[in-house]
Write a structure and sequence with these properties.
- This protein is of the alpha/beta class.
- It contains 12 helices and 14 strands.
- Strands 2-1-3-4-5 form a 5-stranded parallel beta sheet, sandwiched between helices. Strands 7-6-8-9 form a 4-stranded parallel beta sheet.
- Strand 6, helix 6 (179-194) and strand 7 (198-205) form a beta-alpha-beta unit.
Amino acid sequence: MIKKGMVVFTVIFWILVLGSLQMAFSQKSEQEVVKIGCLFALSGPARHIGVPSKYVALMAKEYFEEKGGIEGKEIKLIFADTKGESSVALREFERLVNEEKVCAIIGPTRTGTAVALFSKIEAAKIPVVMCVGGTPPVVPTKRWIFKTPQKTITAVEKICGYLKERGIDKVAIITSQDAFGAEGKKDLEEVMQKENIQIVAKESFGTKDIDMTIQLRKLIVTEAQAIICWTIGPAGATVAKNFKSLGAKQILIQCHGLPDPEYLELAGEAANGTIMPSTKTVVAQQLREDDPQREVVQNFVKKYEEEYGPVSTHSGYAWDAFMILANAIKKAGTDPAKIREAIEETKGYIGVSGIYNMSADDHCGLGVDSLVMVTVENGKWKLIK
């Protein structure tokens, strides 16, 4: 009986020892892994932004892995597809937070899905660095939400600077009937009034419309010297083709969401001569030698194009989001509250999309100088000096 009891005791002892070792190993493994959620539109109408964002996140992960991880910790990216839909984005956000236990999230890549997440993010108390062009994520400032693309009003201000330099004081605008278009219209009206540029006519269109000729015909017969279009995706190319077919005398200015290989492909010859604000990615080789972003942008573009093809104005957003987040984790560890504080303290980070200086009042951190004005010449992007 004694021997049998000893055997039982020994077995139980080793089960407990092995269980403790397994638990310790598991805890150690968890501590050595940085889990970051990537909430992108990998399918659906906004996949042309979401899929490249995934590529860029993988590039950034590889960049840090070559340096031994983030402070020696392994990086694990957890991808989630919003499909460009708010309901899906909400479900996937909850999965990343509650099941995957990520310490922070990059994305989403569409303004509508971003807006749907606001209350969930604030309640979850997890830092999110968004890759959307719209302003609502950061105006008014929200404690747990940041973004890397320029605010809409920043792009409008860049366009106004271009107009004033050329003595253009009368414009007409055509905007999409969605949240992005509505925001563009609002900011155009506000900034144009402030800069004494008259909006002589306004038109709009549905995002699924396949022809905007009727609206454009009304605009080109006005005294406007330029027509400004505010939309993203294929609709921008449709406007360019309709505009060219009408033989309009004005210049066509697109928004900061259009410098993209898809625009060049869909608009074809009609893209030539169109003008728009952009990040510096599409004209990387044309940047001045004294531009502080030149080396960063050119290195990024070289790496991206070697692996994935032509860049767009959107290409650097996920890279900058990852780098800002990684720098915060290096400084503060993986506690979400401390990461949030460190992101907010980002100063002088030279990124692909601009030089970031964030604060408690500014969760974007980019100014007008982060954008350049570009045009299309013979199917290629050209920097407007």
